[in-house]
Amino acid sequence: MISDKPVIGITMGDPASIGPEIAIKALLTERIFEICNPVIIGDASVFNDIIKRLDTNAKINVIKSISDAKFIYGEPDVFDLQNVDMGQLRFGEISAMAGNASFEAVKKVIELALAGEVDATVTGPINKKSVNEAGHHFAGHTEIYAHFTNTKKYAMLLVEENMKVIHVSTHVSLRQACDLVKKERIIQVIELLHNGLIQLGETNLKIGVAGLNPHAGDSGLFGTEDDLEILPAVQEAREAGYQVEGPVPADTLFSKASTGYYGGIVAMYHDQGHIPFKLTGFKWNAQKQQMDSVKGVNITMGLPIIRTSVDHGTAFEIAGKGVASSDAMILAIESAVQLSKARLNQNA
């Protein structure tokens, strides 16, 4: 670490997406340099193009190692992977080239974090189809991180103000998601959420656990998973000392969570957690036909390194237009800084 500020590695995401744009916009926010030393991992030619499109006086500092970074506001450091052919790149289009470039940026930032060269990692949005077309068969960022860090127990935690949601399962079919509602996994996720809340500085450690079925099964009338898997998990977690309630019907749980009643909640599957979360952080302007604000941070819990991310997609429809919001990227960087400090204090 060059100073007392953590070094944060930020991946560009898919170069055909809004990822590079929001990374540059975030690093053109002066307070980011007040709290950390940021460095972008990606292709320098992509960022030179973005800077021209944004008509800013910023200048890219191209580096080949973290030790070459200057961490100067107005001169974003870009760890150049030289893996994008600008002659072939088309904004808003799926391609193996773009998928490979985004994948290589993620792989490199993981390597840098494992080597201790960056203190935390922040990821821009990738397109899963592009990544898979490039021959990298992963369901998403979380699975890439788990693979390259050899992590078996992990979960996705979404954070936006009062809404802090962790998931029992994510990128699987709904049929598979129901089958994955198992007592052992639910207990594991409760533990990950509890630890995450502490690392984020949360004082309210009360955890609400969502039911899977309507009315949390209504005593077996609408399914048995709530009684046979979720309730025993909650009881065992409570006996272990965790402040936990459930299973709570999802239509009640999330409305209570939005008020701050729970410090965090456990969702049983991807959309159960993502839909109410995005209703909180995503603000669509119908008149302008664009997002006024896209807030929300995705944190992968259970990894040996820190990983936060924007919790939105590639937004291909507005890529290259200069109108993308960097709110979520800024929040992701701030969360990475918070987690870095918490880890440093824990290891002190």
UniProtKB/TrEMBL annotation:
It is an enzyme of class 1 (oxidoreductase). It holds the Pfam family PdxA. It comes from the Bacteria. Keywords: Metal-binding, NAD, Oxidoreductase. Its EC number is 1.1.1.262. The keyword Oxidoreductase applies. Signal peptide: none annotated. One of its GO terms (molecular function) is 4-hydroxythreonine-4-phosphate dehydrogenase activity. NCBIfam families: pdxA. This is 4-hydroxythreonine-4-phosphate dehydrogenase PdxA.
